[in-house]
Protein 1
Amino acid sequence: MIANLRDYEPSIIEFVIPEAIRETFPPVLFEGSTNVDEIIKLVNENFNATFPESEISQRVLDAFEIDEIREEYCIKQENEVPKRERELLEAIERAKKIKSDAQERLAAIKTEIKDLAAEVKKGTKDYQLSSKNTVRFALNGYFIYYSWVNGQLTLVKGEKIPAWDKRSLWAQEDRNRKAMLDLFGLEYPEVERPVDDEDALSEDLGENPFDGEDDDPEDDE
């Protein structure tokens, strides 16, 4: 039942991370260390990282959660839907207003069941990351998030850095790339830096658009 999931959290939390990100970045930083305060201090000393507020990651539903949600929507399907259908038939006889109300209630319970079933099919749910123990830094063209979960600093999220946000990140990338090499022996390539808008325009035109134009219009005479 849904009530059994209130404040529930699996003993081991598994996060939903794209395979490309999972294969590129280590799943845990400072593996074996158990003092989160010391690890966060090391991150601050070695990385150009931030502490994002109210960040959400996705974790996998465990077997207990799936069973409880399934039980919830099965009970609703067996008990509530037939009840709403009977109310609908009675409402038709009494008044259009009552009929309309019953139809809305039926639609609502079916929507609730559909949403619960969709949640089970999706198999994931939002996971609130601790702003105190979650860090984000730029590396290899990604924003990478590590958070203190399962007793270790765990890779919980990764996302491509949008083109519009890249220009201010190169100094961060350099420092973070060096930190990964110095601390963990992991080498990442330097990401190609963006081209200035003026340079890009000239490159697209292939030449200075004003080259070849006469400074003195009288020369054409």
Protein 2
Amino acid sequence: MKLKKIILEGDSKYEKVNQLFPIRWKSHHVTELFMELLPEIELDGNKQLTILATRNRRENAKKYNNYKAFNASSYYLEEEQIKTLELLKNPEDVERFVLGIIEEVLVDIINIVGEDEEKISAIKDTTKKVMESEFSLKKKINTLSKKSKIGKYKADVFRCLNRVFGEVWCVELENGLSGKTRVEWLTSKPDYLDRRDYFKKSKWEENKFIITNKLCIEVSSIESGKE
């Protein structure tokens, strides 16, 4: 099974009591960007990896845990790494530190399950690509982007990952008659959730662009004629 998801999770209770910006939010755009750029690889047979930046480690719990029955793995960070993550405030410093953790953890897991230089090389190459992107990505979602049947309007849907907004989604609506384009935001700014299953399908109904979730429930409706 290919790796599909990485989550860097802090201690939510500790963060709340100490009024700390959640580690999961700090790291969200970095983990998601890394997965967008990482070639499909099998890490350890599971599809999700949770990196735990928490002091609530169970007694005698191993640093790396493989839960094959749940298709998930976990990996505990050391306390010094946790302290650094909690206290770092400069966004660029946070990004570089989180990226370093992702690479370190993935390489360590590969070495634990069986050294594979090709996979390690893919991980390190992805780290370079994330750095080169300046930790920002605007990706057009082709499965959601559509032209209206009458051909007057076009809607392009984008997933945006960056340090300012975390993860936000927008629609760029182009009026083929006037040549004007406007942007409609589908999420709050900032936001820190993976919305790929939330925005699942789209369609045009006359001059209205509609997006539904995986349950086919409407989650957004935009009138194309609005200027």
